[in-house]
Structure formats: C-alpha cells, structure tokens
C-alpha cells in the first residue's frame, strides 16, 4: 500500500512539474523560451472568443499576436477569468494579460497598466423599447440582468438600486432578457451598439435607452516590475503606434465594434 | 481458509446484468427532448441563420474535448479520494479510540461540507507551486473535489467492514490471525464486493459534479459550451447546446448507474 501511495504522489508531482525559469527580464525570458504566454478571454465576443476548432480569436488576440510577432516568438494563449488573471500574472504563469481588464486605481497597485490604453468602454443597458426607460433612476427596484464579475455591476447597484440578477455568461443573461425575466441587461455600451447594429431581427424591438456612463479604460497588464523595464517600454511604444496609425480603429471595424470616441480622441491627441 | 469464512453471497449469472430495454428507453427519451428543443429553436430562428443541428455539429468536437477533461478530472479525483477514503474509513474502525474519533470527525466534516465551497478553498489555499513543483489549477481542483469524495468513501469503507458479521472476526481470531491479517485477508476481500456498488454510485455523482470546476475558471465541458454560445451569439441555441453537453454526461453516467444496480442485486446477501 505504501508503494502505491508513493507512486501516486510521484505521478501527481510529475504531472504538476512545469519548468519555471523566472528570469529577471521578461523579454530575455520570453526570447529564450521562444514563446510568450498571454492571458486572454475566450468567452467575451468580439474581444476574445472561440472558433469551432478551439482557436481563440478576436480584437485582443490580434494585439497579442502583434506583440508576439514583434518579439519574434510564438504566442501561447491561456484563457483567464476576472478572478484569476492578476494572480496568474503575479505568479509568472502568464507574461502579459490582455483580457477586457479595466484600468482602476486599486488594480494599479497590483498590476502594471500599459498606457495609452487600447480601448475605453462605458456602461449602458439593453432593454426592450416597450420598457420605456428614460434615465438611470428608472432602474430602481426593477430587475436588471447582469454578468458575473463585470466591473460596473457594483457601481450601478449602489447608485441606482436595481434588483440585480447575475448570470455566469452573456448568452444566459440575454436569454433571460428575452424571456422577460428582467427589464434590462447591463453591459458595455459599444457591445450593445454592435449587437443592435448587427441587424439581427431578434433584437429589432430592443434599444439602448440610457446615456452611457462611467467611462472605463481597458489596459494591457504586465507585472509591476516590468512596467518600467524594457518589456513595459516596448508595449507602451507599440500602443502609441497602434493609436497613431489608426490600427485600433481599424481593428474595431474588423471585429464589428462601433468606433469608440476614446480611440478617435486619443489618435488626434497623439498626432 | 477464505472459502470457509465467506458468507453466503447471492451470485446471479448475467441474467440481471444491464436491462437493455429500460436503458434504451431512457436514452431515447433524452434524445427526443434534445431533438425537440433543437427543432423548436430551429423553428424560432430566422431563415438566414445556419440550422441549429449544423451549429451543434460544428461545436460538438470542441465541447466533447471539454467533456473528456471532465472525465479526466473525475478519474483523478476518484483515485485520490479512494486512496484517502480507504485509510480514513479503516481508521474509523481502528481499535484505537483517539484515531477512531479523529477519523470520524474528519469524515463528518468533509461529508457535510458543500463541494463548491471545498473547491473554492482548495483553489485559494493551495499555493501555485510547492518548492520547484508547479501546482496547476486543474490539480488543485482534483484535490479540492477529492475531499468530499474522501469523506463519502470513508463511510462506504466503514459500512462495508462493519457489515461483515462479527462471527468472521471471532472465528479468524480463533485461528490465530493477527488483526491486520484478519482485516486484509478476511474482512476486506468480502467487504469490497459490498463497497463496489456505492463506490460506483459515488463516482457517477462525482462525474456530474465536475462541472463545478468551470466556476473556478478551468476549461471544462461547461466552459466550452458557454464559450461556444458566446461565439455564436444566438440565444435560441442555449437550450439545445446545454442539452448536448447533458447528453454526453448522461450517456457516460447512465450505464454506470445501471451496472451499479445490477451489481447491488448480485452481491446482495440472502436473508
């Protein structure tokens, strides 16, 4: 029995071993390994989502690929969630994170945020026209569908006191909205615009009735000590170029995202 | 010697092995629900969209891969849980009072704790690496899920051992076997037969519970199903897509349930 236990423990340990050379300089480490590991979303269309072959694609994936190409290494993507992405980065399991991450002061204490930010979203709701919503205060006491872990959930529920029904993923929440389980679906405004602009007849009687609120910048995250190291500088340079060349606006078009005013303004500012 | 001490165990041949008619009916029922939901979704969908069945077919390989990962986790968890549970169960019938009490307390604690909470604890408390050895999140999940399995297996082992009539112990002692010999050579070989059906039952329950790991960000069948739903952005797919995953679990778990039932009958003690 003892030998079986030893063998089992041995097997578990062997499975778990992943050579983890934590070099000081991330660029050197990545180049030596020939691969950069990037934390991405695989359940957030069109930023990062799956195709049927299991490949992850999307707006953020294109940016990650460009970083890998610039370094001349292969891109390895690790799907992350809002709950584990900063932890993975700190642990060194990923070298960089580009996963619809909002740039907040609290997060800046843990993660290096690359500026200029590659996107800015704001909060709005998708609601049936028949609901007749006019302003945010109309949500008070009414049922609002939302998605777990979204940064705007807390702010909206504190300010406007709706009855929040939280779902694990976007399709579940949208289904609930269509089933009249809630009066509105709380989400990122550009995505709502894209959904409505898609011409899908199932959304013909829906609208985005409220003024967008709480603009939130999204950022690529690196480890804090990488922020002012060559890796962070490289990413900042790339980000400036993405803005200047209009690359980000082009990517928005490619992935069917409504052009966000933030990108247009930043492009003007940098030129 | 063992033959002399074996209690009367009923031995049916293959006559009560899987009842083919009942299992076919159950499977047919699930397939019917699946097809009906797909047809309903199809009828509701606009003509321009791809048919529901073709979309499901497109995503099936990826979701099946995720499902295989669930099975991998279930096998690993069962192996670890069984090894730990056997020791814990035997400790519950130990002649040492302190050991017995401690084992009882541990068993009760893990049997009556919610699986998801134990899973969260394992994900949060276990380090990302122990020394040079990395501890990937799926391995943490295996450890977390094996705790309640351990508690339940311990009860199965304890019950199995206690179900052997005390006469067996007494006659073995009269033949000068040591306690250890009695346990390993006489009691356990008989008890194992009685433990196998509840053990299989536990495994089927565990397999279905492995979808909990999707909540802690592991890419299992449920995560893949969600990702597919996000990528398709069609709410009409929600029911058929989840049903497809359910069907995979059903096809795997239902035969186990049937086999458990027939084994139970086969090993039942005649009174």
Written overview of the protein:
The complex is a heterodimer of chains A (271) and B (271). Chain A is elongated. Chain A has 11 helices and 14 strands. In chain A, strands 8, 9, 10, 11, 12 and 13 form a 6-stranded mixed β-sheet that branches. Chain A has 2 domains: 22-118 and 219-270, Periplasmic binding protein-like II (D-Maltodextrin-Binding Protein, domain 2); 122-215, D-Maltodextrin-Binding Protein, domain 2. Chain A is 39% helix and 21% strand. Chain B is mainly α and 271 residues long. In chain B, strands 1-2 form a two-stranded antiparallel sheet. In chain B, helix 6 crosses helix 8, helix 8 packs antiparallel against helix 10 (238-267) and helix 9 (221-232) runs antiparallel to helix 10 (238-267). Mean pLDDT of chain B is 86; it is low at 1-18. Classes of the chains: A alpha/beta (271), B mainly alpha (271). Chains A and B meet through helix 1, strand 2 and helix 7 of A and helix 3, strand 2 and helix 9 of B.
Notable traits:
heterodimer; A: 271 residues; alpha/beta; D-Maltodextrin-Binding Protein, domain 2; 6-stranded mixed β-sheet; 3-stranded parallel β-sheet; 14 strands; 21% strand; elongated; B: 271 residues; mainly alpha; MetI-like fold; two-stranded antiparallel ribbon; 10 helices
CATH class of chain B: Mainly Alpha
Give the total of domains of chain A: 2
Structural class of chain B: mainly alpha
Task: Please mark out the parts of chain A with pLDDT under 50 across 5 or more consecutive residues, or reply none.
Answer: 12-23
Count up the domains of chain B: 1
Total strands of chain B: 2
Fraction of residues in helix of chain A: 25-40%
Radius of gyration of chain A: 21 Å
* Largest contact between chains: A-B, 39 and 36 residues
The rounded distance between the terminal residues' Cα atoms of chain A is 72 Å
CATH superfamily of chain B: MetI-like
Low-confidence stretches of chain B: 1-18
Strand content of chain B: under 5%
Strand content of chain A: 15-25%
Give the count of helical stretches of chain B: 10
Largest sheet of chain A: 6 strands, mixed
Q: Tally of extended strands of chain A? A: 14
| Mean of pLDDT of chain A | 86
Q: Determine the CATH topology of the largest domain in chain A.
A: D-Maltodextrin-Binding Protein, domain 2
Q: SSE order of chain B in H/E notation?
A: HHHHHEEHHHHH
Q: Please give the share of residues in helix of chain B.
A: over 70%
């Amino acid at each position: 029995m003892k030998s079986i236990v030893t063998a089992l423990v041995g097997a578990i340990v062997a499975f778990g071993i992943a050579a983890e050379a934590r070099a000081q300089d991330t660029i050197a480490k990545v180049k030596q390994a020939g691969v950069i590991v990037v934390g991405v979303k695989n359940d957030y269309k069109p930023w990062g989502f799956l195709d049927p072959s299991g490949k992850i694609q999307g707006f953020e994936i294109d940016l990650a690929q460009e970083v890998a190409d610039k370094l001349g290494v292969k891109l390895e993507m690790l799907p992350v969630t809002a709950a584990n992405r900063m932890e993975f980065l700190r642990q060194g399991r990923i070298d960089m994170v580009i996963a619809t991450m909002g740039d907040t002061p609290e997060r800046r204490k843990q993660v290096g945020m690359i500026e200029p930010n590659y996107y800015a979203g704001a909060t709005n709701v998708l609601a049936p026209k028949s609901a007749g919503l006019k302003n945010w205060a109309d949500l008070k006491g009414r049922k609002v569908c939302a998605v777990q872990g979204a940064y705007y959930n807390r702010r909206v529920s504190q300010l406007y006191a709706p009855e929040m029904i939280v779902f694990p993923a976007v399709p579940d929440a949208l289904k609930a909205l269509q089933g009249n389980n809630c009066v509105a679906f709380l989400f990122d405004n550009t995505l709502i615009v894209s959904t409505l602009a898609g011409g899908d007849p199932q959304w013909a009687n829906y609208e985005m009735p409220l003024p967008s609120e709480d603009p939130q910048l999204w950022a690529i995250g690196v480890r804090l000590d990488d922020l002012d190291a060559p890796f962070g500088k490289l990413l900042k340079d790339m980000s400036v170029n993405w803005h200047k060349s209009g690359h980000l606006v082009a990517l928005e078009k490619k992935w069917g995202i409504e052009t966000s005013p933030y990108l247009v303004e930043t492009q003007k500012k940098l030129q | 010697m063992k033959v002399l001490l074996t209690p009367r165990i009923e031995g049916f041949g293959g006559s009560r092995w899987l009842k083919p008619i009942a299992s076919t009916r159950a499977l047919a029922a699930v397939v019917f629900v699946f097809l009906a939901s797909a047809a309903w979704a199809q009828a509701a969908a606009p003509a321009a969209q791809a048919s529901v069945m073709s979309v499901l077919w497109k995503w099936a390989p990826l979701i099946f891969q995720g499902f295989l990962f669930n099975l991998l986790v279930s096998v690993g968890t069962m192996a670890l849980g069984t090894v730990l549970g056997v020791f814990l169960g035997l400790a519950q019938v130990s002649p040492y009072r302190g050991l017995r009490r401690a084992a009882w307390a541990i068993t009760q604690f893990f049997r009556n704790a919610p699986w998801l909470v134990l899973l969260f604890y394992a994900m949060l408390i276990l380090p990302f690496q122990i020394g040079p050895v990395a501890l990937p999140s799926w391995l943490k999940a295996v450890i977390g899920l094996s705790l309640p399995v351990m508690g339940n297996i311990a009860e199965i082992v304890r019950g199995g051992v206690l179900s052997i009539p005390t006469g067996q112990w007494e006659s073995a002692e009269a033949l000068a076997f040591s306690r250890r010999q009695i346990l390993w050579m006489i009691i356990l070989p008989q008890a194992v037969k009685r433990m196998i059906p509840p053990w299989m039952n536990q495994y089927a329950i565990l397999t279905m519970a492995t979808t909990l790991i999707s909540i802690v960000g592991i890419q299992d069948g449920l995560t893949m199903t969600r990702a597919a739903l996000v990528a398709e952005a069609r709410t009409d797919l929600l029911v058929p897509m989840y049903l497809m995953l359910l069907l995979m679990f059903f096809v795997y778990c239902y035969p186990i349930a049937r086999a458990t039932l027939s084994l139970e009958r086969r090993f039942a003690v005649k009174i």
